[in-house]
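I am still getting used to backbone structure tokens and would like to learn alongside you. Please make up or recall a protein chain and show it to me in full. Would you write everything just below, so we can both look at the same thing?
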Amino acid sequence: MDREKHEKLRIIREAVRGRHTVREVARLLDLSMARVKQLKKAFREHGEIAITHRNSGRQPGVCTSKERRTEIIALKNSDAYANTNVAQFRKLLAENEGIKISHGTLSGILREAEIIPPKKHRKEDGRFKRKGAFGEMLLMGTCSHQWFGGREYCVLHFLVDDATKRITSLYFCRNECVMGYVEVLRQTITIHGIPHELYAKKAEKLFGNTEWGTPAVREKPSVITPLGRIVKEQLGMAIVDDLHAPHANARVEKLLKTMQRRIPQWLKNHGIADMERANGKLRDYIAIYNSQRSIPLRITEPAFDALDGHDPDILLAIRHKTTPDSDGCFYVRNFAFKVDSPKPVANMEIDFLFCPKGEKMFLAYHERGYHTVSFLGLKAANGSFVDLPDALEVLIQEECYASVAEQSFCNVNTSNRV
């Protein structure tokens, strides 16, 4: 019995013995005089138990039993649910274990067991409103994490829409590379179309320093990376950096925290333990995520531009500017090529296209036309050429899967989409 109830019982006992009047007890206990008379009568007939509520000390009928609490704590500490937050854990308990429990009750059980739920995200600053239309601006990023458990890290490349929070594409690679970025762009433009703007935290590193307005950048020579040529010249997207979208990085970081909690659990539940299988199934995860976490549109009409018959393989090809010699031959990364053209292209600048997923892997663009390119091989130290299969493997590794920090820079060319 707590102190307040003990004091109430003492006053009623003294009132029954005649030491207090009904009016005095009513004033002391803040009760009506009729209620004081009822309490005095109940005390005379039943004793002290009459003053205590009949349900006092009893466990409510809807209370979670001690056995169920122990079971829930054991499940939360298991490998299957260790990385889930309260909302995910509650959903999985209902789906996998048949345990239905409210969010508040589950949170209380975990707090009592000193299993602290992840902190809630702060609300976004209202000064930075989201874009109005789906496809008006996409946020690009990567995250290195132990996605498949164990100690091995790999990198998840992603694109997410700023207006709706919808993920448009995901792709796993061993490291942050051109292929990862190209693949998320391929998925997005094939399914939805070409967005108007693209935000990236490391914009200068990824795309080059062209068209940046800061004096420090203007003093540098204008350069553009192979990925920058794809985004700016071929797809025609405007690049947005932190200076023009200071809120975008916070939204990317928030998404990363969500994916780091949800994707490993989803992969484990579906028995996916390698990147190849994961890349084939990520569309299913995207559909689930978007159905649960996307927000309504202010403008119903999407802002994506249609491909208008352009071949995605050509738009997303890795391009290098080069000049063939008098025999029509040229070298890229010490690989020898020759342009198959009825007209001579000697000493003329061309665009060399490397399309690792296209029907024709090598093309040359010259005078508004595409020409096939013959691959001569990798030039060895003794002047000979390595066989085609081995050379292609080396070329794909250097052009596609090498770290973004190692990608070569090209001369600036501001030509229109071809």
About this structure: Residues 101 and 225 are 53 Å apart (CA to CA). The two ends are 84 Å apart (CA to CA). DSSP finds 14 helices and 14 strands in the chain. Confidence is low (pLDDT under 50) at residues 212-218, 408-418.
